[in-house]
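Researcher: Re-running this chain for the archive, since the previous output was lost when a drive failed. Same request as before.
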Amino acid sequence: MSLYRFDSRGAFLPKFLAFIMLLFIGILVVTYLIARQADPVILDDQGHYRTGGHASGGR
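Model: Regenerated structure tokens:
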């Protein structure tokens, strides 16, 4: 009976998938940090600044 030995050729897929996962998580973190610093301007349908929340539009 031979002992199972990990074949080094099969190690590529887990490393590749781990790299893809880390890349995806890194993109999410960078996107979150950039979005926290963003200062969006909300405009109404005529292009004027909205001064309040959802209910302050008077509609």
